[in-house]
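Re: Re: ligand-bound prediction request (bumping)

Still looking for help on this. To restate: I need the protein modeled with 1-deoxynojirimycin bound, output as structure tokens. Inputs repeated here so nobody has to scroll up.
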Amino acid sequence: MKYGYFDEEQKEYVITRPDTPAPWANYLGSPDYGAIISNNAGGYSFVKSGANGRILRYHFNSDDTPGRYLYIRDDASGDYWSASWQPVGKDLAVYKNECRHGTAYTKITAEYQGITSEALYYVPLNKTYEVWRLRLQNTSQTERKLSAFGYAEFTNDSNYEQDQINLQYTLFITKTYFKNNKILQTINQNELKDKEGSNGKERFFGCVGTEVTSYNGDKTAFLGSYRTYGNPIAVEKGHCDNVLNYNSNSCGALHSSFTLQPGETKEIVYILGRYNDKDSDEILKAYEDPGVTEKEIQELKDYWHGKLNNFQVNTPSSEFNSMINTWNAYQCFITFIWSRAASFIYCGQRNGYGYRDTVQDIQGIIHLDPAMAKERIRFMLSAQVDNGGGLPLVKYDHNAGNEDTPDDYSYVQATGHPAYRADDALWLFPTILKYIGESGDTGFLKEVIPYANKEEDTVYGHLKRAIRFSMERQGDHKMPAGLHADWNDCLRLGKKGESTFVAFQLYYAMSIIKDFAKDQKDSEYIEYINKVQGELFDTIQSLCWEDDRYIRGIKEDGQVIGSKKDAEASMWLNPQSWAVISGLADREQGEAALESVHRELNTPYGVRLMAPSFVDHAFPGALAILFNPSTKENGGIFSQPQGWIILAESLMGHGNRAFEYFKGSSPAMQNDHAEIRVLEPYVHGQFTESTDSPFEGRSHVHWLTGTASTVMVGCVEGILGMRPDLYGLRIAPSIPSDWKEITIKKVFRGKSLNIRVENKDGAEGGYKEMYLNGVRQEDNYIVENSLKEENEILLVM
Ligand code: NOJ
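Reply:
Sorry for the wait, this slipped through. Here it is.
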């Protein structure tokens, strides 16, 4: 079943049926003022912290209520509906609704009984409040007497848990007032009285463009007892009773009544934010100018589309185009900016950036905005400990140079992370390589950045210490020790256990640092790396290769994990893809390992993380057993590794396979059977249920997932073959053999590239010749200084 389509022109996903299998969300604003909104206007808002700065209430794991509700009432008949299908939920046979999720705005239109409504929701660029613009038009032939009600349900406490649970306290601390066309809410008002500023304890919900006829500041007065958001008593009666909150739940409910002649339009702008009386009046005043909202929406589009336009592709697959040009790209920015802060699944409790997640999130935006990426790389380097390891959790108020580390009890207590993880700092290598490749900024290697706890070093020095961290922590077989965990949160190999995945990461990191060392003319270090990398190669090849697969690791007690002989979890995905990505596997091993993946792990919805799922034979430390079979790490289709297998197949020149995996796991490809996927068809989730599940194909944990960046890299670097390095760009597409032509518009180091790939002979990898501005090149590599401002590139496959 299909609930919507991609509008590539507008860069919007258009939901044409509002009864989607789950709330399909969009992100507005930024964590400075964050708003999440569903296609039925459900969702919440917060200032700075999803957990501690919550201002709009939302019922998690429930029915997508409450939300940013706009009710419309026909005052002649008493009939009423909402600008979004829910909460009133009119019969879809007579109520038409469309929701357009765009880049940082959402527009919901409806048509009912001769009235069209358009509710436009956004947070203006760099502002810390939100706008709901309601436009109503009378499309009938008669004069209509109408009422509009705007409803915002404030939390009683900025901490969302306090608001939901500690009712003996939070029910008795707020008050509301009606002042100048707005409801003002205060928290702990008397305590605030003599203090400067409102300490974030005043919120407002006001409107411009109409006089408020009646209002409520008390939720129950608006909804009525034993009623729902679908039939508030105030809307039913046609007016509020001007009841303010004292010892109950606050809300902002603003009612206005007016008449619309046939064809006439009315616009009301509602604004919500965490501001005091005076400041909110000023904000509202700015919207008396009727052009402001259009200008702000244009600013948002210019900002986001400007970024996305730095890389645009045209292939025969419209789904691939929509994902790479708009939705996967936009999701990369959202995960980059929001980390795992807030969604309909994440309540905002994680008080910082996960090291590995964030360093990987950066990779997804490097080709679109290298400068933005650089800033975050700096930040993450400043969260590396002087011993070379990464802080598993980097607090939002991270204070470089002064932080405690996992060696300190205080850090463990504050973050809940008991020890270093084996992989964290190793993610820096591909990320920094990609950044320098995209920007050409080799000077970055010399930039001095502090460590998290003490001392400072150049970026190059930071990377050397990351290598040292792994070299100093080895298991009995001289592979990197498993420490607390590697990428897989559910795999405890033991402190001295050894992870094949981390070994590949380290091997790859060594290749990357060798290139950096050449650039830095550090021959002594190159010699060292050549030696240790050779040793690591021999170790991995002798211990981890088993016929047609690489094992997953060796436990502290010597038990091999992921052996062909194992009754369960005998085949693991990541060691196979990373054997290729790291450059360690030879051609034959790569072919065999990837073939085993296809044979044993592939499903119609993507590739399983491992198989068979743990049921009866989990070893101590195989925490995946906690999950149902075919779920998450227990043999589910974990989404993040899909990007790695797409990349690995592409690196092998297997364009058909790479695209097969893209298709299997891509949200856009599931658009026509969205009832199976359930999750938004325009964003990746964390995982998809696999073969053992009665709900095979159902996906979970929307939006904030490392999948955004890995799949982006798999497609851009892998399938499309954009492979920048320190000095230029290699173009090496691995595309499905039935793609006869693709074009790519890419900004590379400030220059425009118009790339055309011709594939008349139906190849899936490799190239015959390449031309830059009409000149045949020696191979498929472009040196930066041969580029003009505008460049025409033709690659013949
Ligand atoms: C989710 C975590 O956020 C990510 O860091 C981890 O790598 C995966 N789970 C796999 O366990």
